[in-house]
Amino acid sequence: MSGDDAHIGAASRIAVTGRLYILKDDLSEDFIRASGPGGQNVNKVSTAVQLRFNLAGNETLPEDVKSRAARLAGSRLTLNGEIVLQADRFRTRERNREDALERLLELLRKATEKPKPRKATKPTLGSKRRRLDAKKQRGQIKKMRGRGGRHDD
């Protein structure tokens, strides 16, 4: 832990990977009414959670991870740089809260994976020959078309 991180308690941190973490201060939750079936309970109790993660203001994640996370978030990223996740699969607030947080952490874990650079390769001699043979065969088939000749009776 560096000198800047010494004042941050372990309770206010959420581990993303072994070395990376986010701060609870970068998260905010709003409880809203869930949509869909659920009887009378769905109209009275706000069990769905809308989790907001301030990606732009986050200082614990490296820039490359943040840019990949922004790309992975897609339409869930607001213009203010917040990732918004809505969880309403479960009937209780606590389960929806856990679900939203786990989905956010999964997105951030995917963002930590560096894409493998593509290495250009040349086609093999066998594949070149197969391609040319296929072209010749198609050409022969086309050559045979329409060559019925006229029948002068």
Automatic annotation (TrEMBL):
Region Disordered: what ranges?
110-153
> PROSITE patterns recorded for this chain?
RF_PROK_I
In terms of superkingdom, the source organism counts as Bacteria
Residue stretches of biased makeup (Basic residues): 116-153
**Where do the Prokaryotic-type class I peptide chain release factors domain residues begin and end?**
33-49
This entry's Gene Ontology molecular function terms read:
peptidyl-tRNA hydrolase activity
EC number(s) reported in the record? 3.1.1.29
- Name the Pfam families on file: RF-1
What is the enzyme's class at the highest EC level? hydrolase
Q: Which InterPro entries match?
A: Pep_chain_release_fac_I
Q: Which UniProt keywords apply?
A: Hydrolase
List the NCBIfam families hit by this protein, alphabetically: PRK09256.1 (NF006718)
Q: What is this protein called?
A: Aminoacyl-tRNA hydrolase
Corresponding gene?
Answer: arfB
